[in-house]
Amino acid sequence: MSVTDLTTPLTSPSGAASGPGTPPSASVARRRIPRVGVMLATAWLVLLAIAALAAAVGLTVDPLANDYSVISQAPSLAHPFGTDNLGRDVFSRSLHGAAASAVVALVTVVVGGGIGILLGVWAGLRRGFADAVVGFLTDVTIALPSLIIVATIVTLTGPSLPTISLTIAGFAIPVFARLSRSATLAIATENYVIVARTLGASGWRILTREVLPSVLPIMMPFIMTTLATAIVAEGALSFLGFGLRPPEPSWGGLIAEGRTQLPVAPWVTLMPALLLCATILSINVLGEHSREAKR
């Protein structure tokens, strides 16, 4: 996981990059393009969430049901994404794979982000020995090969959504802690924080009421990045055989299963891969939008 480059071109007060010779119509067009992108990204994620929820409650075809009368059938009205070599509906399996990826991403943000941000804010406010210990632990953890360790843990404990989600979340904690600590060091010098200290506010009140509400908006772009990273990590683990065991569907597992069927049924790999790419792109668009909005 890495933080995106925060360098951006100079913009006019309206938010669009423009110069003395930029026509008004061009400036308006440049402002509309990001809005359209944000709307499309939001619409895609909402639609995917609704479809995945519908699949989770059983409103789609059973993703594990074999139908040998429609083996390797091309996309059609009955099977929008086609079927695989066992006659299973790729559309239904892809939606169930989306649910698995969503669980991993949300657990990573809620658990890893929650613990990491609280730890980083606490270290940034306390400083001294506490800050040194947190800094040492984050440096050591970030230096570890996280994907290899996650794969090892999953192999030893058995592949399951809780194991995969919590292990990936554990490696997100130090990154969140480091970034939130850096934000806290800047916020701690603001007048309202100094006034709260002078008036005798407790450390917990300063953390929760003064500093944390200011840190969370700063962390939003990285939270979006972490959502995308967690989805990619889960997909990579499943693709390499360390994720959910077949026939349980996951995007990475579906892509891996379809490799042997590419000559006769390319849609088995193509459709979940397109869903994965569109989801990651949409999350990144919203993350970029939140970063620009914060600026």
TrEMBL record:
Membrane topology per record: Multi-pass membrane protein
CDD domains the UniProt entry points to: TM_PBP2
Cell compartments where the protein resides: Cell membrane
Gene Ontology CC: plasma membrane
Main location, first listed in the record: membrane
Keywords per UniProt: Cell membrane, Membrane, Transmembrane, Transmembrane helix, Transport
Ranges for domain ABC transmembrane type-1: 98-287
Presence of the UniProt keyword Membrane in the record: yes
Transmembrane segments annotated in the record for this chain: 36-59, 98-125, 132-154, 160-177, 215-244, 264-286
Listed Low complexity bias regions: 11-27
Ranges for region Disordered: 1-28
SUPFAM superfamilies (alphabetical): MetI-like
Keyword Transmembrane helix included in the entry's annotation: yes
GO biological process, one term: transmembrane transport
Protein family (similarity comment): Belongs to the binding-protein-dependent transport system permease family.
PANTHER family: D,D-DIPEPTIDE TRANSPORT SYSTEM PERMEASE PROTEIN DDPC-RELATED (PTHR43386:SF1), OLIGOPEPTIDE TRANSPORT SYSTEM PERMEASE PROTEIN APPC (PTHR43386)
Protein known as: Peptide/nickel transport system permease protein
Gene source species: Glaciihabitans tibetensis
